[in-house]
Amino acid sequence: MLQQIADELIKTSSYINGRWCDMPAKFAVVNPANQQLLAQVSDAGAAEAEQAVQAASTAFAGWAALPAAKRSELLQRWYQLVLQHQDELARLLTLEQGKPLSEAKGEIAYGASYLQWFAEEAKRLYGDTIPAPANDKRIIVQRQPVGVVTAITPWNFPNAMIARKAAAALAAGCSFVVKPAQQTPLSALALAELADQAGIPPGVFNVVVGSDAKAIGAVLTQHPLVAKFSFTGSTAVGKQLLKQCADGVKRVTMELGGNAPFIVFDDADLDAAIQGLLASKFRNAGQTCVCANRILVQRGVYQAFADKLAIAITQLKVGDGLNGDSQIGPLIDANALEKVSNLVQSAVADGARLLLGGKADSAGKQFYQPTLLCDVRADMAISRAEIFGPVAPLMMFDTEQDAIALANSTEYGLAAYFYSRDIGRVFRVAQQLQFGMVGINEGIISNAAAPFGGVKQSGFGREGSQYGLDDYTELKYLCLGGL
Ligand code: ADP
């Protein structure tokens, strides 16, 4: 299965200080589409995490001292190499993660776009001069890299979640250590190989792969040489890691869970809303933190919307992501399937109507049928949990204020979406939604030029955009006196 991928991109051990660290203990990486073994990967732990942090700390001074144009050039080269290998990286990603190959290609391009974006932003790390209160003084503000950055990333975007963080960190002049999810180490290691080929100096970008997330996480959040920790994953784990960072007063970025409302008002373009919903809900088989999680539809268009959606969902093709026409791949593991299945069953037991799907798909052990539920209520478990599966739960509402109140009635605040053609409503609703990102007549909102991040318990910090360097730099104020 890995045959169509060049050997140089198939790495099976941690990349620390520019070296591959083979170890006797291994953990298995399996294809979620068929449970076949893909690779045995060297199982690094706390000791290797410690080495990586040390290496990053040693490399930091030299990297930070490089002219911004030089860091930019190296990031550009990395970007180009990733794009050159887009097809192979996408195949590797689909094999270990399961998403359809076309989506995997999209993710590689999306991840690469952050390398390109921050290669450009690296050159624009501007400071300020501020009018001083007296003529014999000057106030100068500079931005300096925070230092060693560590990160832990999830399996749902095995390439892009690393690229998005590493690109900003390296552009700012920080060195970087990442622990990818145990399920998807191969994409992370392939990215390291290309960083190496691009000429990123040893110790500047390190990848520690291992099965003991807790042990590695303890080092990455608590080591005295770590200045900043960046996490993308579940809110429960994020809270734990945030506590671990507190003792050392580490700078922290948290991209946590979401519970995105997708609101369809009476005046919406229903066909556009269906297209937006399919993209937002079913991408990656529903396993993204910005996936539509609660679909709120106004009474006047509720039935028409449900009918159209049912037709669209029936046409979705379930299957192994490597099959050219598959649109819905497997869920990441057996636990994920069980969780989704339980949520649907409990919704039905609580009175929701099952219009389509509702059980495992015959495509394989970890596939779940695209599912449509109607008459879901806010008090059901499925409305409160992050579903992370191809399940669309529809809820009815009457007024604009009802929709806003329902949408905001969650502890999460990552993405929200709504469809309306009334310009007044567009501004009113956008203003009142308590979410970090709002898609208006749009189901796909993430790109390198825009700030990605959440409010409330979805976390803090922003990735991408002109603001993306802020999390990786400190302001330093210089006061020149006696002039
Ligand atoms: P998901 O539901 O996406 O798997 P998790 O929060 O469980 O979300 O996982 C995201 C990342 O956090 C993964 O890399 C995982 O290995 C890591 N992780 C999970 N638990 C811990 C922990 N206790 N300490 C450190 N890292 C953890």
TrEMBL record:
Residue numbers annotated as active site: E255
Report the superkingdom from the record: Bacteria
Per the database record, which ranges form the Aldehyde dehydrogenase domain? 25-477
Kindly list the GO molecular function terms attached to this UniProt entry.
succinate-semialdehyde dehydrogenase (NAD+) activity
Which keywords fit this entry according to its UniProt record? Answer: Oxidoreductase
A GO biological process held by the record: gamma-aminobutyric acid catabolic process
The record's top EC class is oxidoreductase
Q: Which InterPro entries match?
A: Ald_DH/histidinol_DH, Ald_DH_C, Ald_DH_CS_CYS, Ald_DH_CS_GLU, Ald_DH_N, Aldehyde_DH_dom, Aldehyde_DH_Superfamily, Succ_semiAld_DH
Q: What is its EC number?
A: 1.2.1.16
Query: One Pfam family from the UniProt entry?
Result: Aldedh
- PANTHER family on file: SUCCINATE-SEMIALDEHYDE DEHYDROGENASE, MITOCHONDRIAL (PTHR43353)
The similarity comment for this entry is: Belongs to the aldehyde dehydrogenase family.
Protein's recorded name: Succinate-semialdehyde dehydrogenase
Name the species this protein comes from: Rheinheimera nanhaiensis E407-8
